[in-house]
Amino acid sequence: MPSDLAVLRERLAARVGEENVTADGAPYAVDGMVPALVVRPGTQHEVSEVVAACAEARAALVPWGGGTAMAMGNPPRRLDVVVRLERLDRVVEFDPDNLCITVEAGMPLGRLQALVAERRERLPLDPPDADRVTLGGLVAANQSGPCRLLHGTARDWVLGLRVVLPDGTRIHCGGRVIKNVSGYDMNKLFIQSFGTLGIITEVTVKLLPMPVCRATVLGAFTGFAEAAAVLEEVQASFLLPEALELLDPAAADLLQPVLGLASRGTFTLVAGFSGSQSTVDRQVRDLEAMVASRAGHAKTFREAESDQAWTAITNVQGGGAPDPKRVVCQLAVPIARTASMLASARTRAAAQGLAATVTAHAGSGLVCAALLPGDDLTEAGALAGLAAVTEALREEAVGVGGSLVLLQAPPRFKARVEAWGKPGSSFATMRRIKAEFDPQDLCSPGRFLGGM
Amino acid sequence: MSNKVLVQELRRVVGEANVIDSDVHLQLYQYDAYLEERRPDAVVFVHSTEEVSRVLKLCHAHGVPSVPRGGGTNLSGGTIPFKGGVVLEMIRMNRLLEVDKGNLRARVQPGMFNLELGQALAPLGYQYLPDPASQKAATLGGNVAENSGGPHCFKYGVTTNHVAGMTVVLSDGEIVELGGMAPDTPGYDLTGVFVGSEGTFGVCTEVVVRIVRQAEGVKTMLAIYDSIEKGSETVSAIVAAGMVPATLEMMDQLVIHAVEKSLACGLPLDCATVLIIEVDGLKDDLEEQTEAIVRLCMEHGAREVRVAKDEAERALLWAGRRGAFGAVARITPSYLVCDGTVPRTTLPLVLKKVAEVGEKYDLKIPNVFHAGDGNLHPLILFDWRDAEQKARVMKAGMEILELCVQLGGTISGEHGVGLEKMDAMHLILSAEDIQAQLKVKRAFDPADLANPGKIFPAAQEVSHAQ
Q: What is the β-pairing status of strands B367-370 and B247-252?
């Protein structure tokens, strides 16, 4: 440890306690880069003191919530300190009558859901790994799940944030009311800022009443065309599914133990419905009829079984646990291109002899492709093949106005394929924002778009 | 640069007929729906992104500020050219460029009226959800600049929840694409940051909006009460019962009187308040929802509940609400609209306190409010020719905003800060919060030429802030 970091360690220990600073950085390596120090502040004020001390020492830091998005992004340009937020897990205020809750950023999503469920409310955001992902991490990495179809993403539910800026200054954005145009919408700046503009320490979200009724309809098809046709039919109908997922045969087979599909190797469309008994019943009926009309096999789960099915489907791509044997990428395309993008990912992977599991938030324009080379990517050939598939998919997505982002990839792979793709015409403005907020380039340096 | 030279240069860029600078013409551009006035040096009619870029390059080269203007319906002074310079008249950029049903997006130019987009989508079976009450005269570009709300926000959110991308021109003339047709564009969410920036980041010249299928069914109700508290209690009871109506709107007696005088919608003149409730979605449970809501209204002391039987009756129930501001304008020379927002359950308390403010300053204050989302619009009536009265109005307005903040709310729900509420910003933001916002302003508009002199307290202008 360089001598100035030894000084920093003492300073941090003086602020957060010796037991909350460690030099054992290995478990918190980011893309193989091991931090010299790991610190666990216990309050928002302590976060601000830690960040100010790092700024003074010119130490580069990366915030760490549940660790579910740590495999995303470019490898950091520098990394001295990992700031863990697990001790910031308190409820600040729960106001069930106004459908609103404020929690500290380290609160895991699963725990928040359990808490508000006691008052028959919920936050309709459902990224994978709900028990690990923290509210701060969900916001910073803009994580979402199947029910973004009806309910949107963090930007639609976050009412307010408290943030520690890169120099240690504490600010707040928004508030706890649904409509708020008092100054700029600063919440939007920090949602999907990926730890590059400071550390989110507190999150206020609005909530929804718990639906009376839930159901999930699976439609299993032997052919891709039939699944895609039913998808289109649902989208053109009045039905209001909360989620609409398309699973390729590999994903459907992985889910076989939970979903109990009649046959293996099917393209499976999954729709989630919630609401009153009569609207859920009607939607189940309509979708079952659509599936049958295309020679598909329909299966319906209700209530607790429906919830179980969704937990499994949401996590089918393995969540955020880094795995050196996989490359997982997310393709974003205009909604109507989702199904064909899924098909294309399968075809391109197969052409390179790669196993793949491909799923899609089919009504939202997002395809998740896990590419499995079969060994640990030490073979130069395997790496080149994977890179070729990824680049081809990126080109295809960019060609229709979309993007490809790496959700998980070993550092060796990231050295060949950029994690976010090429920035667009707004990049100069983004860089000016970064320079205004973090002139010393200390917060997650290099991890974001364009090495920002 | 002298005005004359500026106008000559502008004419060279956009053509003789597209620049106006006569006194009479400029007078038409010195005000909006707020109470201040400031005359621009020139008004430029623009027709394309490239033309906006050329005009802004010229302005930038000469250090001339500019303000884009849509329908001029802004209630906080957002379109007033506070520091002079050029007003960009956006109204000719009013085309619907593309409706893409498969991708659930439409591409529109900013000068199109909000209602026009709705009318173009309806025959296709689609809709754009944000519908501010001023939708007949408010443009989509203005909606983007102000992050407009409207009477459907409790269920459907505000403008920012429905904008997927845009083309903007920065104050140095640079053309920048934000967001787009695909979701989750990598990088900072500049679309989200730009919406609601009140013209201070640049000029929006094209918008990609989310469209959705029209609801299969809709039911509209009007509940009539002898007390405002009972109306507010009903709203909380509906939400507590787990329902999410599309609309929960209230008007008090003074507004009802004004509405009846000008629109004759058949509202009872002797009631304290009316509550408009609308539920929409799949038709299967609309009857049962309507019955449950009617029951809740009656349980909470409604005198009568009317359920619209057809589209004509529904239109009549809405006409009163949509026409409320206009109707009030007919009974008073001027009014100041407050736009404070509070957590919904504190509405009865804040309304009582607003009435006390009215008594204290001897002013009439009718109320229209979005009860579902806690956004209230006290309308303080006065005569602009009476300077002493105007001073009292300003004090009363500020006191109402302070009330909202004390109850956990904020100073503006949907009308923006503009010139009106600059001095109220300190009620909700610390010096550090304001400095952070100014960092974003500098990143978009380092020269401070985009609608300068707005939003932030005068002492904290962009160039001085570090």
A: antiparallel
CB burial of residue B429 (10 Å; 0-12, 13-18, 19+): buried
Which residues on chain A are in Cβ contact (under 8 Å) with B178? 426
Nearest to B184 among A142, A185, A427 (CB): A142
Q: Tell me how far apart the alpha carbons of residues B331 and B444 are, in angstroms, rounded to a whole number.
A: 43
Distance in angstroms (rounded) separating the CA atoms of residues B374 and B117: 27
Chain A interface includes B147 (CB < 8 A): yes
Minimal Cβ distance to A177: which of B104, B343, B446: B343
Residues 6+ apart with CB under 8 A from B311: none
- The predicted model scores a pTM of 0.97
The nearest alpha carbon in chain A to B372 belongs to: A178
Q: What is the pLDDT of residues A4-53, one digit of tens each?
A: 889 999 999 999 999 999 999 999 999 999 999 999 999 999 999 999 99
Q: Which of A182, A187, A405 sits opposite B412 (nearest CB)?
A: A182
Architecture of the B332-406 domain: 2-Layer Sandwich (3.30)
DSSP H stretches of helix in B210-346: 228-240, 253-263, 286-299, 311-322, 324-329
CATH class of A327-414: alpha beta
B96-213 in CATH: which number?
Answer: 3.30.465.10
For the B3-89 domain, the top CATH level (class) is: alpha beta
φ, ψ (nearest 5 deg) of residue B296? -60, -40
Token pair of A449 as six digits: 């778009």
Assign domain A1-210 to its CATH architecture: 2-Layer Sandwich (3.30)
Question: Going along B27-162, which residue ranges are E strands?
Answer: 42-45, 66-69, 86-89, 96-100, 105-108, 126-127
* Residue among A360, A369, A368, A363 at smallest CA distance from A336: A363
Report how far residue A317's alpha carbon sits from residue A128's, in angstroms, rounded to the nearest whole number.
9
**Fold of the CATH domain A213-314:** Alpha-Beta Plaits (3.30.70)
CB contact under 8 A, B188 and A427: no
Å between B318 CA and nearest CA of chain A: 21
Interchain proximity A98–B183, CB inside 8 Å: no
Contact A179 B181 (CB under 8 A): no
Contact A275 B192 (CB under 8 A): no
Residue B130 to residue B152: CA distance in whole angstroms: 7
Residues A56 and A15 sit within 8 Å (Cβ to Cβ): no
Give me the residue spans of the domains in chain A: 1-210, 213-314, 327-414
B243 with A278: Cβ contact below 8 A: no
Which one of B189, B239, B287, B427 would you mutate to disrupt binding with A, by most A Cβ within 10 Å of its Cβ?
A: B189
Predicted confidence (pLDDT) per residue in A361-395, tens digit: 999 999 999 998 766 566 777 788 899 999 999 99
List CB contacts (< 8 A) between A198 and chain B: none
Put simply, the answer to whether B192 touches A188 (Cβ < 8 Å) is yes
Q: Select the residue of A99, A192, A278 nearest B285 (Cβ to Cβ).
A: A278
Backbone φ, ψ for residue A199 (5° rounding): -120, 125
Determine the average pLDDT of the residues in A117-144.
97
224-263 in B: which are within 8 Å (CB) of A? 236, 239-240, 242-244
* Residue B191 C-beta-side C-alpha neighbours within 13 Å: 26
Instruction: Count how many Cα atoms sit within 13 Å of the Cα of residue A445 in the half-sphere of its side chain.
Output: 18
CB contact under 8 A, B185 and A403: yes
Interface probe, candidates A179, A239, A281, A367, chain B, greatest B C-beta count within 10 A: A179
Both tokens of residue A163?
A: 């943030």
Question: pLDDT (tens digit, 9 = 90+) per residue, B87-96?
Answer: 999 999 999 9
Q: B265 φ, ψ to 5°?
A: -90, 0
- pLDDT by residue (tens digit) across A150-180? 999 999 999 999 999 999 999 999 999 999 9
